[in-house]
Amino acid sequence: MKKARRNFLKKGTLGIVSAPFLSIGSCAATENKTSIKTLPVIISTWDAGKEANEEAFKILKSGGTSLDAVEKGVMLAEADDTNQYVGDGGKPDRDGYVTLDACIMDWKGNAGSVCFLENIVHPISVARRVMEKTPHVMLVGEGAKQFAIEEGFKTKNLLTQQSKMDWEEWKKTAEYRPVINTENHDTIGMLAIDEKGNISGACTTSGMAFKMRGRVGDSPIIGAGLFVDNEVGGAVATGLGEAVLRTLTSFLCVEFMRNGKTPQEACKMAIERLTQKHKNYKDFQVGIIALDKNGNTGAFAIQEGFTYALSAEGKNEVSHSESMI
Ligand code: SD4
Fold this sequence. Notes:
single chain, alpha+beta, Glutamine Phosphoribosylpyrophosphate, subunit 1, domain 1, eight-stranded mixed sheet, five-stranded mixed sheet
């Protein structure tokens, strides 16, 4: 058994037993239902998560933290201008502006977020700077952009020819549909646990295509699009942000794990709560992924078609999650 794993087992076990937040009962429930995995483990939303996981894995293997890993991992999707749901090349709002949302959390409970950010390719890195260099958690719009520029980020027109053409096409009907089909996603959320057992998470998106100007979804909201509590685990949501915002899906999922549910059970219960609160849930998609303190993972969605990429124990594979419908 490798030394890092032996140390982790030791730390992991002690951590669980001594953790003040877990009752004996919930601790026993978790231990019965899940195992302790070889670390690191990385899990990300959608197909683009596979490449992002590879990048994150490289960072961890070269001594980076889980925070470095999730940041650098999702930056791939942000920089890919063929990905029309994240960063450069994202689909614009109904007025033709590409506006980005992102947030990041580390194992110490620190959090940073930017919303409604324009002309900056890497909102996740700006969110990290907000976390590390300001007394705040969230900056929005012009203020977030001003901060990014002060921090040395370069500005760029993020509206690609393809996204502009799609917007022109959309304007012919200008139908406002707050419905996200399963084919129409790519927001990237990532959770990583390193060999020391430290969990971090990141989430970045250009949000719903052709949204109202000023609209912000769940992705940059701590507890909605992302939540990490290193004593328990982390969760990331994707899909119709409005539904996630109303039910704080990621926070809820972590709280279910705190109470002894496995990541898979917690994901399912968080989606069930969301559907109980939304009678029209059959009309939209929300998916969630989760990772616990022992490297166990879960994924669940309302509709079929939600994919996630899991990098664990020498493999990095995309799978379809279980779903409600
Ligand atoms: C949003 N949750 O802005 C994001 C969209 C998304 O995959 O996740 N798309 O509502």
